[in-house]
Structures are given as structure tokens and as C-alpha cells.
Amino acid sequence: MEAALYDPLHGYYASAKARIGSSGDFATAVSSGPLFGRLLARQFHEMWDHLGRPGSWLLVEQGAFDGRLCADILEGLSNFAPECFAATSIALVEPFSLLQRRQADTLRSFQKKITWYRECSTLPVFTGVHYSNELLDAFPFHFLRSNASGWEELRVGASHAGFEFQPHPIREPALREAAASLPAREPGFITEISLQPKLWLRSLRQKLKTGWLLTFDYGMTQPELLSPHRKDGTASAYFAHQRQPSLLTNPGAQDLTAHVNFSATTRDALSEGWHLSGYTDQHRFFSGLAPLHFQDATERPTLQQQKELLAFRTLTHPQLMGSQFKAWCLSRGEMPKLSGFKYGAGTLSSLEN
User: What is residue 343's predicted lDDT score, i.e. its pLDDT?
Assistant: First the structure.
């Protein structure tokens, strides 16, 4: 998966073959228009207030693709929070030159505010927010399958017919430890485990002095992911908005993804010294932020307001993005409750049941 997505020459993301939007391979919240970024700008403005309105702070985006979300956030802040906008600098974590150039083109009107970093370990120590949209679902994962004695790993091998999954004993100590913590399931049950989030969280904890980590992604709690009806796992391949029959066909030409296990990722975060600030679905998150952005009106909405209301329904409708996508937030130490998590849980026990 790492090679298929991130190989510098042939990887789906690294070589800029990924296409997002109605004419691409998949859609994201950013595809629905600028409202996603504008609502995040409202949340960031509140965070800046909670930090005492510092004269300078840093917003770090990882997985920014073409930079559109960052542009929407900055445009929002410049329009309705000019003091916060003036205090804001941007760091984009982007290892691939092709995507850096796309981002620079999208963000050319904000170029004085932006610095690029190839990985989180090269970030400066900062006060502010690390944010991302659909980042964790693209972290490479291990495939595990239950058998009569526990769990085995499905590794990618080659045969005369092409690539195929082949069962092997679990070799990596960290993966054996993670598999040992899973409850027993009937033979043949498949699930995914990613070891990368813990290393990512450890790296970011060393950089974020004060502030939050906020991410949006599709995923579930561990009990939901291990429900009997998900015996085939959640890993999927997408091309032209169609789910593809094989993960191993056309490597580098299709998106590969798996649902985030927010229970396991929260346990990793707590073990690395983070505090869980909130977890909820996207519907509840943006419903909590709505009063900061939308004002009660007795007059007929303008065309722009109508477009925003339509985009809000797309972001929050349970049958669109509202229930499938989750908002997950960590902080360095105890922080005030954020408006986005007004209706959300904030404890590990809520993610384990």
C-alpha cells in the first residue's frame, strides 16, 4: 500500500495521479465547496481565543493535496476574523514536489504566510493546531485474518496470475502485540491494523507545545469495526467513484483506503501523552459550529447563502457525509470544550462501547 500510494514516481498520490471531485476518483468534504474551510476557520478562531489571542500561532495542515482547504480557511479568517488572520502562519507538511507546486499555485495570494516541511519531524516547536482531512485512512495498514489459533497476517505475494494475498504468521512484534489485544473472531474474519498512527502521534507530540490536533476521517470504534457483518474488513480501492473488485489490481492507478479505528488510535494517543478533547460525527460537529457562522434571518437568503445552506446539508446529512465521517480532536493538556464538540463524546470509554 505504501508503494502503491506514495512511490515518488508511480504512487497514486505522490505522482499526482489522484483526482478528487465529481470528475475524479472520489469526493471529499472540500469538494462540496468552501463552507467546510469556512466552518473550520470559525473553530480555529475560537481556539485562538482559548489560547489568549496570541500575537502569532501556527496552523499545520498535513495531506493538503492541492491546497484548496487551506485557502478556504485563510479566506474565511481574513473575512470575519482579521486579527486572528494577522496572527496566523501556515505550515504544510508535504513530502512530494509535484503536490507542493500545486499547493503553491492555489495559495499564491497567501504565499507570505506559508512554509513547507517534508515531514512532521522537521516542524518547529509550535503553539496552534495540526489539522487534516482524510489523512489517517490513507496510512498503510496490515491485513489480519482470524484462524483456529488466533490471527495470521495476509501479505502480498506474486504468482503466475499476478499479485495475491498469502497467509503468514505475524512477524512484527508491534503487530503481534496489537493482534493479541483483539477479541477472538470466527475463522476467516478479516480486519486491518495500522501501526503508523502511534509513530505519527509521537512525532507531533514533540512539536506541538500548546494547542490541538484535529482530524476528519471516515472510521468507527473498534466494537463497530469488529461486528460480525464486517467479516471482510473495510479496505477498499476506488477509481472513477466506483469501488474496485481488487485491492491489488493496477497498483498506483487507484486509491487504497481503510476505515480508521478510532478506539485504537485514541489508546495510542493517550499512551503518548495526548488528551482526548472530543470525538463525534461530522453532523454533530458542524451543528455545534453552525451558530458561530449562520445567523438567524427573517429575509429571503441570498444566492450565496443558499449555496452555503446546500453545502451544509451535504456536510451534515446522515446519508451523505454526516454520519460516516468523524471529527476527532486531541490536545496538549486540558483545554476548554470546543463548540464543534458541544454534542460529542470526550472519553475513551465512549469509544470502547
Answer: 87
Would you say 278 and 337 are in contact if contact means Cβ atoms under 8 Å apart? yes
- Give the CATH architecture of domain 2-140+196-352: 3-Layer(aba) Sandwich (3.40)
Return the percentage of the chain with pLDDT > 90, whole number.
73
DSSP assignment letter at 65: T
- Sequence letter at residue 273: G
User: Residue 318 gets which letter from DSSP?
Assistant: I
The rounded distance, in Å, linking the Cα atoms of 2 and 196 is 11
What is residue 314's predicted lDDT score, i.e. its pLDDT?
76
Q: Tell me which amino acid residue 299 is.
A: E
Reply yes or no on whether the pLDDT at 9 is more than 80. yes
What distance in Å separates the CA atoms of residue 175 and residue 196, rounded to the nearest whole number? 11
Domain ranges for the chain, please list them.
Answer: 2-140+196-352, 143-180
Alpha helices in the chain (DSSP H): 2-6, 35-50, 68-80, 82-87, 97-106, 173-180, 196-205, 222-225, 262-271, 282-293, 303-316, 349-352
CB atoms within 10 A of CB 189: 19
* pTM to 2 decimal places: 0.91
